[in-house]
Write a structure and sequence with these properties.
Helix content is 26%, strand content 29%. The chain is an alpha/beta fold. Strands 1, 2, 3, 4, 5, 6, 7, 8, 9 and 10 form a ten-stranded mixed beta sheet that branches. It has a five-stranded mixed beta sheet with strand order 12-11-20-22-21, with helices on both faces. Strands 13-19-15-16 form a four-stranded antiparallel beta sheet, with no helix packed on it. Helix 9 packs across helix 11.
């Protein structure tokens, strides 16, 4: 056995089948096993796992908890140490892999780079609340990192690492009490070598309201970060105290600002108010009790789903791949042509997600769909590719394409910024909140502040904290000056 896949899951009824399918689809020249650590779920997760184990008794082994544990660090560590495989891959039950070659690529990387104790790759972040997807790792991610880099932030998505098993002979006792298990694990490994990065998107990191990290609000996340830093700093003997203290100082400052923003908002905003909050595209919005909070600029993405082609098999040229778009081609089959058989992502030349490979999702009954070439070649004008597909059983199929604009929308100029803000106002927004650590739009667009100061009452102006404007009544008798369409 060359690779052990440790899959951790709890209450992932909606996701666990997809996660398992993407592990089972792996095409390798070596044997691998799947060990699932299930933490006494209260939904159908365990039933689904038992069904999969019956289908793949030689491939899947289940470790079913008798009661839910505060952390899953100890079962994970025990299975890590018990494995006879030289390599350990990790996956959470609400994420999934997008390439059938993921495991093989990572084994090849580690065997080619003996100085690396682990390697990881990029992933797509998918937000279930409709926010625009994004890359987990930016274009400036270093090809090789060390422990000092990990202290800055955890740049390894939990669906992406593969570790050398022999790096950790024994887990320290403090590991079992950490609030999270993955980041300290990478720290422990990085004491013994480098961290290698593969600039390919081979997984999806899903962000939803029930995720252990994502369900926390901004204040809770900052408090967790501080606790994690302080714990790891002490347990690693304060050897990196200079780096750690600078990060803790930043998080504590951000925490005080976040608490003060919520305190001021609670003091001046009615309980059922609707509040516009200026914020970056993927930034957590403040929790303002019963008040509705709308992000500005808006985070909605446009998506269109159209029939692309029909037939049991075929190929068709696509000559309209825009440089800012992310496209998903889905092959459907079955009696009603509503069963997803396979899918492939295609990214535009300058899309926010510009991977070396986005890969295919798991297939059924030897069905396939592929894009060639993928990624789209650079050049002037729209990109051109060929989509090829087969249902695998000669039954009729249908290929649909979903087109999503991946640009994080910011108004083009001051006039558009004011217009978009006033459109939100007309839809029911009553106040506008500008946290000082999220005020980049104000800096880029002084016209917006001039417009607000001219027409609306400034309720709060606290240095290094926030501004709050009352949009309910204009300061002048006439309506605010609106840019012409």
């Amino acid at each position: 056995m060359k690779v052990t896949v440790l899959l951790t899951t709890y209450n992932h009824e909606k996701y666990i089948a997809q996660a398992l399918d993407t592990v089972l689809m792996q095409e390798t020249e070596f044997d691998y096993e799947i060990v699932v650590l299930e933490d006494c779920s209260t939904d159908r997760t365990r039933d689904i796992l038992l069904s999969y184990q019956m289908q793949y008794p030689g491939k899947i082994r289940l470790r079913l908890a008798e009661r839910n544990e505060p952390t899953s660090s100890r079962p994970f560590a025990e299975e890590f140490q018990a494995s006879s495989s030289p390599y350990i891959a990790m996956l959470d039950g609400d994420d999934y892999w997008t390439s059938s070659k993921k495991l093989e690529k990572q084994v090849e990387f580690l065997e080619a780079h003996p100085d690396c104790v682990l390697c990881f790759h990029n992933a797509i972040m998918i937000y279930e609340d409709g926010r625009v997807p994004g890359r987990y790792n930016g274009l400036n991610q270093k090809p090789f990192s060390v422990l000092e880099d990990l202290w800055q932030y955890c740049f390894i998505a939990s669906a992406t690492p593969m570790l050398r098993k022999n790096v950790l002979d024994k887990f320290p006792e403090w590991y079992y009490t950490t609030p999270v298990g993955d980041w300290p694990l990478y720290m422990l490994c990085a004491q013994h070598g480098q961290i290698g990065y593969m600039d390919e998107i081979l997984a999806v990191y899903r962000i939803h309201g029930e995720g252990i990290w994502s369900k926390q609000n901004k204040i809770q996340k900052l408090e967790s970060l501080i606790a994690i830093y302080e714990s790891m700093n002490a347990n690693l003997g304060f050897r990196y105290n200079g780096i750690v203290q600078s990060r803790i100082s930043k998080w504590k400052n951000d925490l005080e600002i976040a608490k003060r923003v919520e305190e001021l908002a609670a003091a001046v905003l009615p309980r059922e108010a609707t509040v516009i909050v200026i914020s970056a595209a993927h930034e957590d919005l403040p929790q303002l009790g019963e008040r509705k909070v709308w992000p500005f600029p808006e985070r909605t993405s446009t998506e269109r789903r159209n029939l692309f082609a029909s037939g049991a098999a075929g190929s068709k040229e696509v000559a309209w791949i825009g440089d800012q778009g992310l496209y998903q081609f889905c092959l459907y089959g079955g009696p009603a042509r509503d069963t997803l058989l396979a899918s492939v992502f295609v990214a535009g030349k300058r899309a926010a997600l510009t991977p070396q490979s986005l890969g295919e999702k798991p297939t059924r009954n030897k069905a396939f769909i592929a894009a060639t070439p993928n990624p789209v070649p650079t050049g002037s004008g729209p990109g051109k590719i060929v989509i090829s597909w087969s249902t695998g059983d000669c039954r009729p199929g249908a290929v649909y394409v979903s087109v999503e604009d991946q640009r994080v929308h910011y108004p083009a100029n001051g006039s558009d910024t004011i217009k978009e803000m006033e459109q939100l106002h007309s839809k029911g927004a009553e106040f506008l909140l500008v946290p000082y650590n999220s005020s980049e739009l104000f800096k880029q667009c002084p016209e917006l502040k001039e417009h607000l100061d001219k027409h609306y009452q400034l309720l709060i102006s606290e240095e290094d904290t926030c501004l709050i404007y009352d949009l309910r009544e204009a300061l002048q008798q006439h309506a605010p000056d609106m840019p012409k369409a």
